[in-house]
């Protein structure tokens, strides 16, 4: 097999082998067009190799000669598309424009197979050389059209790359130069072949140049990770970053800055790039002096806010930049504005504090509702310490009340096991002596010990060994100290000023509940005394009424006895005295009503109708009753006179 055929086959097969790898990176800008490019070059190389390697048959060689134009015509266009995407101009390539680029190459392929009117070339003939047998013919006019069209797009792709070289970092510049060289080779080879300047006039150097370009593509692919990272990706990422990104060389000159950095400085890249860091960041000279010699930094810094009031917070990162040999070539400075995050954190902390305060207020309200319903002091105080300890999760809660002399604060209720032990022993503290409770009982002012070991008034109680912080609040009623609410925690610095204020509110509720319970107990004692007095009074009044009725009856008996013949007391008196109601007589149409005085019957009125079947109605009886009342009053008056 001729060496030229091997030279065509091997690179083409390498390109075909690269196709799956390229497809796996299809999301990278330019990857799809690069895949089309390597396939087109592979088709061109394989078809030309088959043209040279096949049997010397004019029809077969004519077919492969035309087939290679599928790759030859497509390659320049796809190269241009790749260059557009690689340099970040892919938005220009709409679907309609993309399709229109392949109109003339399609026509050229058809012309290569059909060759109407010999527009592509004159009739082909077989030509034998020392190494191969191929076809030869004079080119037609359409070949010039195709060559011009192809060269234009190859040159446009090269121009795009060269234009972008200035803004590419060093790594990308090496990538771009490799691609430019790979594109120039087919361009030069095609010109040499068409102009007849080739050493072997029967060998088309264009497919050979394509295969050499394929080797350059392969080198760029693996040496510079062509499809792993491309300049357009780097530009898109850095340009879209809201962080300030600055690249500084070893001489502290700025070699690159992103749009966010330009906006912060209020200057364009043209005015910044190449300038010393000290000059560009002169307004922040104190920061430059601090970090100018540091190779690696990660700190939070503050800068004056852009609005002129307040401060802005930034996360500063400085990292070294190294080349492929590990040598430091500069530094990358990234400045991230974290002011919003700090503000959110501050708001979050405030929100958490507000929620905590709201929860505490709800607990205070709950405890207040619970204790206001209890009127017995013996039940109230244990309930208070239990609720406060459970709801606020305190280690120990105790309530001290002053004795009658005001000399001692006596423990009345406690929530902890140690506190209940103190209750059993009758624990009390002398007012004014060394203890936080005694101090508060004397001064009437709340006292908070964030760390009891540092508080001069703290009394270490052996039954409460876990106490780390303590708050004692006076219980006052009408500005009079009646006791102390003592709260202890297992954690140091467990209480803040807000907690003390909240517990003070709760302490006022407890003091009020204690005062109400005491008042209720006093009222209960007074009510019992009044009940007993009322019972005694009622018994005395009953005895007095009985005596009055007896004396009244005796008095009227004597009165009537002195007037015998004037009034007749019949035998109905005992029954009337028992019932106090009227009594029907045994005589037909007769009725008898009592005359009452102070509950005693002193006489009767007998009624007798002329009609034997008289029916006494309620109205008649009521009228007679009113008469008997007047008769009773008249008899009293008559007796007095």
What does this structure look like?
The structure is a single chain. By secondary structure, the chain is of the alpha+beta class. Helices cover 55% and strands 17% of the residues. Helix 3 packs antiparallel against helix 5 and helix 5 runs antiparallel to helix 6. The chain is elongated and about 185 Å long. The termini are far apart. About 3% of the residues have low confidence.
> Alpha-carbon distance between the termini?
172 Å
Helix/strand class: alpha+beta
Radius of gyration, in Å, reads: 59 Å
Strand content: 15-25%
In short:
By secondary structure, the chain is α+β, with helices and mostly antiparallel strands. It has helices at 3-24, 31-53, 58-86, 95-100, 103-114, 141-165, 170-194, 205-223, 231-240, 259-265, 269-272, 277-280, 285-291, 339-372, 377-392, 417-424, 436-443, 497-561, 573-579, 618-640, and strands spanning 125-128, 133-136, 244-249, 254-257, 297-304, 311-322, 328-337, 396-402, 408-414, 428-430, 447-449, 469-477, 480-489, 583-584, 590-597, 600-608.
Features:
5-stranded antiparallel beta sheet; 55% helix; 17% strand
Task: Describe the secondary-structure layout.
Elements: H1 3-24, H2 31-53, H3 58-86, H4 95-100, H5 103-114, E1 125-128, E2 133-136, H6 141-165, H7 170-194, H8 205-223, H9 231-240, E3 244-249, E4 254-257, H10 259-265, H11 269-272, H12 277-280, H13 285-291, E5 297-304, E6 311-322, E7 328-337, H14 339-372, H15 377-392, E8 396-402, E9 408-414, H16 417-424, E10 428-430, H17 436-443, E11 447-449, E12 469-477, E13 480-489, H18 497-561, H19 573-579, E14 583-584, E15 590-597, E16 600-608, H20 618-640
Antiparallel strand pairs: 1-2, 3-4, 3-7, 5-6, 6-7, 8-9, 8-13, 9-10, 11-12, 12-13, 14-15, 15-16
Helix pairs in contact: 1-2, 1-8, 2-3, 2-8, 3-5, 3-6, 5-6, 6-7, 7-8, 14-15, 14-18, 15-18
